[in-house]
Design a protein that fits this description.
By secondary structure, this protein is α+β, with helices and mostly antiparallel strands. It folds into two domains: about 100 residues; about 90 residues, 2-Layer Sandwich (hypothetical protein PF0899 fold). Helix 2 packs antiparallel against helix 6. The chain starts with about 20 loop residues before the first helix and ends with a helix. About 10% of the residues are buried.
């Protein structure tokens, strides 16, 4: 019996391990020359297997590349989304900061303008107050002379009315002034014409006021108003004229009034 291990029937249109019908064997017997040796079949199968493995590897590599590409695309999309979100957040922040900056600058500008207007109002008010004070001072100074004149006229008028009705005024004046020069030995008294006779009538009383006097004279003077007198003695001169007394009185009143005004 001939061994059949040297040949293995293999049909190109059938794969290894696939079941075939008997008629195919009859056909194979008729074409024995086409039978392949085992080593040829093994070589072909090995080659086919290698090709199949390469195809599988290529398909796997292609799938891996597709998967990697999809993952890369998804990752790129996520990264792009993150960048867009970050850009939007930055834009929003920049917008808010710009708005806040503009608001603060506007507020500072408004505050600065308000302070300038306030300073200007205060300056105008202070200037008005100062001008009012100066105007008051000018008015006071301008009217002081008029007030003094009016006061002088009033005092003089009242005094003269009193003098006209008082013939003994000059004697009361001498009673107050002569004791100041009681040690004098020379005495000259100038009086108004209306008072001359009053002095002559009271000569002894006048001498008694100056007990050491040796020489006494009464002189009529037009420079002396009624009620007043000019006294000359060895100890000095006393001006007791009415006009002088009125001036002194007005000076005292004016001085007192000026002190009150300054306060």
């Amino acid at each position: 019996m001939r061994s059949s291990s040297k040949y293995i029937i293999k049909f190109k249109e059938h794969s290894l391990g696939e079941t075939v019908n008997l008629e195919y064997f009859e056909e194979a017997a008729a074409t024995k020359d086409d039978w392949q040796k085992p080593e040829e079949i093994i070589e072909e199968d090995t080659q086919q297997l290698a090709e199949d493995v390469d195809e599988d590897a290529e398909e796997k590599e292609l799938v891996d590349l597709e998967k990697l590409g999809e993952e890369t695309y998804q990752e790129a999309q996520l990264k792009a989304a993150r960048l867009i979100n970050a850009a939007e957040a930055d834009a929003k922040k920049i917008k808010e900061e710009a708005y806040e900056k503009a608001y603060n600058e506007g507020l500072l500008k408004a505050q600065s303008e308000y302070e300038k207007k306030l300073e200007e109002s205060v300056r105008v008010f202070a200037s008005a107050v100062n001008e009012l004070v100066l105007a008051k001072e000018r008015a006071v100074k301008e009217t002081e002379a008029d007030i003094a004149k009016l006061l002088a006229l009033s005092v003089e008028k009242i005094t003269r009315l009193k003098i006209d009705k008082d013939d003994q005024l000059v004697m009361r004046l001498l009673n107050e002034t002569l004791p100041l020069i009681a040690e004098t030995e020379e005495l000259v008294i100038e009086v108004n014409q209306d008072d001359y006779q009053t002095l002559e009538d009271n000569r002894e009383a006048i001498v008694s006021l100056c007990p050491k006097v040796k020489n006494i004279r009464f002189i009529v003077s037009k420079e002396v108003e009624k009620g007043g007198c000019l006294i000359q003695s060895g100890l000095g001169k006393i001006d007791a004229r009415l006009s002088v007394q009125i001036d002194n009185l007005i000076a005292k009143i004016t001085s007192t009034n000026a002190g009150v005004t300054n306060e």
